[in-house]
Design brief:
Layout: H1 7-10, H2 16-33, E1 35-37, E2 43-45, H3 48-61, H4 69-78
Antiparallel strand pairs: 1-2
Length: about 80
């Protein structure tokens, strides 16, 4: 799970929108790098869609709007 200092938002250093956008990008990057292993010890990586669902779940905890697949695809390619 990505962490970003809340004081950035509370002290008006960055806007709420910027804060949650950065947090979502950090979470997406962590999810892209995340690897699971199956019973045969083969690596299983998350797909863009699976990662996006997890990011949107995180954002919904903060009552933020969900991000689109196009947004996730753009940032996924940059990482």
């Amino acid at each position: 799970m990505a962490f970003l200092d809340e004081s950035l938002r509370k002290n008006k250093i960055i806007s709420d929108d910027e804060f949650y956008n950065i947090l979502a990008r950090m979470e997406l990057q962590e999810l892209k790098e995340y690897v699971q292993h199956d019973e045969q010890n083969n690596e299983i990586k998350l797909t863009i869609k699976q990662a996006l669902n997890k990011v949107n779940e995180m954002l919904s905890e903060y009552n933020q709007p969900h991000l689109t697949y196009e947004w996730a695809k753009k940032w996924w390619r940059r990482f």
